[in-house]
Specification:
By secondary structure, the protein is of the alpha/beta class. It contains seven helices and seven strands.
Length: 153
Amino acid sequence: MDRILEARKRIALVAHDHKKEELLAWAFSCKEQLSAHELFATGTTGNMLEKALHLPVHKLLSGPLGGDQQIGVMIAEARLDVLIFFWDPMEAQPHDPDVKALLRLAATYNLPVACNAATADFMFSSPFMTEAYRALQTDYSQYLKRQLPNQSI
């Protein structure tokens, strides 16, 4: 079943420590556009965004303390429409498996993802950001019905 992303999007904003200032600068330049949507963010990023933008932000846990996983759950439960995740490709993160899982879920559920300012700019210049959009969903029913090898416990 496909998902309809309504005109007012539910947007998650996430940034690794060395990318927080870059995300803040981008968000400030898109403040008016962001104000039309519902915003979610992990821990410190959410506090910084709310203070800088004077916009309400639903704040989750810090990424390494479970915030990335909370966003992943929201993606799987169709409670998010867009992920803006400025991740740091030059620095290993202690929660890299969580980051990889989050990006895998976004791809699995065909969620728009921007990992840098250029992609976020392209995404936000799209007319789909301000109108309903039908996001095609892969049918995983065959995967769920697959035969598993017999395993002894």
